[in-house]
Amino acid sequence: MPDFRFARRRVRASGRAARELQIRLLVIAREEHSESGRQQILLQSWKRWAAKQAGPYPCSDVRSSIRSGRMSSAAAASRPLRFLALTETERNWLLALLITLLCLLAFWTVGLIERIARDVERPERMIRNATEASTRFLAIAHTIVATLFLASSRRMRASGGWIWFAALAMGGAVLCLGYGWVEKRDSVLAGMLFYGYFIAHDFRDEVFLYRANGDAPSDPALARRGLWIAPVLAVLAIAAVFVPAAAFGIGGARRYDLFFEGMSMPVLWLLGLLMIPAAAWLFFVIRRRCEREFEGGWRGLLRAHRPLFFVFAGIDLVLLIGLAVTGRMWMIIALHVVVWYVFALRQIAKRSRDRPPARTMTWDWMRSTSRGFNVLHLGVLCVVVAAAAVWSFAFRNSPDLPVLPVLISRDSLPHWTILHVTLSWTPRGSAG
Hints:
mainly alpha
């Protein structure tokens, strides 16, 4: 069969290979009658077809529509699509990034006004660092709302759900105590353990959201295979940049150079310089495996799981920028919170179309309607920010108070996060 990919016109084809290309929608197929009256198939590449139309033409959305029965093959061949059409996973993540940046800008503005209006020392301010403050307030509010949703979900109607909840709550408390113990002895090690624990939670949730949004391939085998590759590559990218930067004291990563104290200079150089080729070698190994296991090889995997790779690449970018600028990973926690907020809001909007409206200001209204969900989230966030304002303006962030420092101080953020992450390991049965 001739190679139609570079042909300047449609190519006549027949046989099993032509039918396979037609079924998989890898080409445009037209049936015509020859001069002798015989039926023949003419194949044309999508790229060549798109050059004659209004715009580029991706196949992924067309294939998924045909598999789900929403579109026939004939309709697929005549439906114009945008090449860069984003999936729901990608749109949600970009919207969450925008909201996170707006929150950061809002708290930075409040911090600027506070510095101008209040003549107090930095430790007594409500907003000492806009990134940290926005992350802390969002994370505390998110933990409270997520715990309330978990406790009132359908999975908690069985005794097994409450057993899991109690066990994980106790486990979270133990981990919080362990974090505090390590932090007093080695703050750098405690920080690395904390962020490692959170990143594992974040990556797991991103895979879950990718599937829940319906953007995973419709083929169950393909949907399962390769999901581990995106998070592994994300970790390799982080390690390849962070370890050399921390070892040589570059940018914000120099905050973690205490972790390399005591190492001789040759060992330090060896560790720093070998991390990049080691990550590149692992990437090459993964790529070779993809070439063997996936149809279309590496590019086939990227096409199949493009939204997931898009999200993990964005997470890496945000995380590395945060490390370079502040030496912290606060931003990635705030982004995770907002990603869940956007996802839950979209899911509630979809489900509310098929159910009768709930009575306003009831718990069912807050769980099942977009307006109620927003009222709950914004209400809890306002309470957290108001408590922080009272502690700062009335008590100058005094650590001697019995309750407020434990709940909303800068030191409380890791404990809130550890508790939330631990509770999130509750088995995902029927969501509430």
